[in-house]
Amino acid sequence: MSKGLISERALASAAAKSTLLNYLKDGPYAARAGDPEICDFVLGNPHDMPLRAFVNALKTWVEPRDKNWFAYKLSEETAQQAVARGLRDRTGLPFEADDIAMTNGAFGAIATALQAFVDPGEEVIMNLPPWFNYEAMIRLFGATPVMVRVRADDLDLDVDAIGAAISAKTAMVIVNTPNNPTGRMYPAETLDRLAAVLTDASARHGRPILLLSDEPYSRLMFDGLRFISPAEHYPYTAISYSYGKALLTPGERIGWLALSPNIPDRAPLRRLIMTTQVSAGWLFPNATLQHAIEDLEAMSIDIDHLQRKRDRMIGFLREIGYQLHVPEGTFYLLPKCPIEDDLAFAESLASHNVYVLPGTICDIPGYFRISLTANDEMIDRSVEGFRRAFSEARSDVASSAAAS
Ligand SMILES: Cc1ncc(COP(=O)(O)O)c(C=O)c1O
To answer: Which residue from 131, 174, 213, 252 has its CB within 8 A of the most atoms of ligand 1, so it is best to mutate?
Structure first.
């Protein structure tokens, strides 16, 4: 696309999103999304009816209690207090209500953080494989993404490589834990080493580097694991969160950006975040969702059921012959394709009515991502498709080996 009317930043941002959009809008999935015949593992969208408790909370809190109920809302104090209380309980850190900015999901929290803390021309370090929107968002705000791949053997952060990627222009490092798409939660020892590297680099460059810990899946942990936030390890941390994952309601936009209580002198930052949210286009959630927050804080999809779906799929996929690790959190699985070309393999699965996200889209070619938000009936129906695509791929590999 040529520049014409469009800003260079918008063009660079759109280019970063083109693989995903091509797949969703023009690829094999485009024509079949919503078709009841398919087994849809592509995105983290619900395929069961929403939580009744969520619907009841909306009904309760849409009822006005005073004349200001639907007035312009910044971050509502009651919402900030409920979030800070939850964060204190989960992290043991003394989060304060004033450090919480209510946002339109994690998307809004990340956009707010980028605009408040990063200048055009500065660098933001992000890890590969990434959530597929970070690069586009960083570019939209005129900054430069610097990509660092996680370690191939255990998918843990490559702290040495992050250290080597830091320059005098580094304003922010984004870490997503538990990770979409790997399902990995970064362990305390890794976070300690990351903190040491960031502290050292901040001192060297004479400015603190902000760690943006993107944690929308922090309440979707398996096997009773406690989620460990990077905020427990590095003082200059901001956390982005969305209720869209644990409640599986991503169309009702609410989340928050929280400043760690260990960041010194936060008063000017709090004010700056609020004015950034206003100027960037009123990036606050709607009034009803903010009023409902205490109810939303207390609810979750059934994690035991999610874990049963995880275990069932890992079981039959491994039995067929797929190689895949066991995620510690999130609602994703990341199997290896039986052939190198993940786009071709996703097409082959699609020919058997099974739709997945090719790894190329999230920068992990040779793999594919499964979203466990698919319902039980889809999972049952998918077994045969996964089996057939696997044996077709294997017989193709065998016949091309025999031919050569
Ligand atoms: C890692 C990560 N961060 C942020 C988001 C954005 O979440 P939301 O759309 O609920 O704001 C997502 C959604 O898929 C995600 O996976």
So the answer is: 131
Amino acid at 83: V
CATH topology of domain 8-48+302-403: Aspartate Aminotransferase, domain 1 (3.90.1150)
Q: Which residues contact 77 (CB under 8 A, 6 or more apart)?
A: 97
Q: Which CATH code fits 52-297?
A: 3.40.640.10
Domain boundaries, the chain: 8-48+302-403, 52-297
- Which ligand 1 atom is at minimum distance from the Cα of 105? 11
Q: What are phi and psi of 101, to 5 degrees?
A: -105, 120
Helices 342-351 and 376-403 sit at what angle, rounded to 10 degrees? 120
- The CA dihedral of 88, 89, 93, 99, to the nearest 10 degrees, is -20
CA distance 341 to 111: 33
86 lines ligand 1 (CB under 6 A): no
CA distances from 287 to 113, 144, 293, 306 (A): 22, 35, 10, 30
> Does pTM surpass 0.90?
yes
How confident is the model over 135-189, as pLDDT tens digits?
999 999 999 999 999 999 999 999 999 999 999 999 999 999 999 999 999 999 9
Q: Determine contact, residues 258/100, Cβ cutoff 8 Å.
A: yes
